Amino acid sequence: MSHPQITIIGAGAAGLVAAIELERAGYRPLLLEAADRIGGRLKTDQVEDFLLDRGFQVLLTEYPEVKRYLDLKALNINTFRPGGRVHTRQLNFRFADPLREPAQIIRSTLSPIGTLSDKIKLARLGLKLRAYSAEDCFSKSYKEQPTIDYLWALGFSEQIVERFFRPFFGGIFLEQELRTPAALFRFIFKMFGHGGAALPAEGIEAIAKQLAGQLKQTEIRCSTPVASVAGSVVTLADGTEVASPGGIIIACPPEKLLPQIKGTPVTWKSTTNLYFYSSRRLKENRLINLVSDPTSLINTYAVLDEVSPSYKLKGQGGSLISVTLREAITRDIQIGQAEQDLLRHSGLGNDSLRFLHRYDVKQALPDHQHVSYAYDPSHSRLADRIFLAGDHQLNGSLDAAMRSGRLAALGLLNY
Ligand SMILES: Cc1cc2nc3c(=O)[nH]c(=O)nc-3n(C[C@H](O)[C@H](O)[C@H](O)COP(=O)(O)OP(=O)(O)OC[C@H]3O[C@@H](n4cnc5c(N)ncnc54)[C@H](O)[C@@H]3O)c2cc1C
Fold first, then answer.
1. Once rounded to an integer, what is the mean pLDDT over residues 252-275?
2. Ligand 1 pocket: which of 398, 406, 407 to mutate (most atoms <8 Å of CB)?
3. Among 26, 2, 66, which residue's Cα sits nearest to residue 409?
């Protein structure tokens, strides 16, 4: 007997994982995607002879859902080196993670990233979180406490907050105040402590492609925006009605599809990411560069082809540099300013740098005041046989997007 039709709206990581789970249960879901290709926020473009991810994004290899659904070997991942390089107005120094690279303990002890007491606290925090489960990281008292308050409560100095935590986690959370709940900080810190930050050889979109490659019974329709959902009927923007008696998973922000939905709509954090090509090779040892300089527009930058050489499609010389700005910018004039800042921090010569591309990602990460790791699958039920998925349901991470897709599918299957 064939299963009733289930429709999934949105072919980002959440929708794709939901489809994988439904297929495993014997369904042949219909996956509707507004954009011209799958992937959602996991997108990579070819610009000239380079692979450019839409926004600087890394794959944390220890994410539980990554281990569940992705074949990292087949993704041919390349990892960043643990630690990083800090650029202040006066200083430029490398710091190491002694827990990941014990041979670097002297470098780590001597680095001016913070006081000796900061370094001891950092190592203790790393060891403590290593012993915790992911769920422990999200325990109740940390789901709303801002990260910055958590760091002050742990006794970290202003020096290490400004030189390390603010640029590093500001770059991950896409906000400089570090108001993102400490639970997510604890989880991400734990993930960095256990595993690597990686780039798939074919770019970040390869993650979505690998998820989609696992689908054998799902019909994927791109360039098919959904206008509304009512009962068991999905109405497309062109007016076509799609009957979905088996249920609906909304794996995108639901407000526009269901105007009657209660609660506050998802709010988003934005980011601007610039790409430059330098004809001179910039050697950064596969480290992420953190900029702790209030006069600079830049928050972080990285030489991508050092980590993943295939980002330079023709193996050409020079370096591909991805720059994430502290704040999303609104005026083109600021690109020139960012370029000057990059020259200053990197020490590259004026004539070696060429601007390649700019990405403004308006809806980059959900702006949560409260985050979660997981929930009972029935929790994401909105109405009869309508379930919600997407990172905005839990926390702003790939892990959360994938988990929400799995839980929504399980909710529907057990309904
Ligand atoms: C710049 C940037 C950096 C990031 N860095 C990291 C990182 O380092 N580590 C990490 O873990 N996470 C990171 N993330 C977050 C991660 O990419 C997301 O959490 C994840 O990709 C979200 O997947 P999703 O399926 O929930 O949503 P999305 O990927 O947004 O998918 C939703 C899909 O629904 C579609 N859709 C919307 N409306 C409709 C409609 N009406 N009809 C049909 N389809 C519709 C959209 O087109 C989209 O394809 C980053 C994100 C960005 C943008």
1. 89
2. 398
3. 26
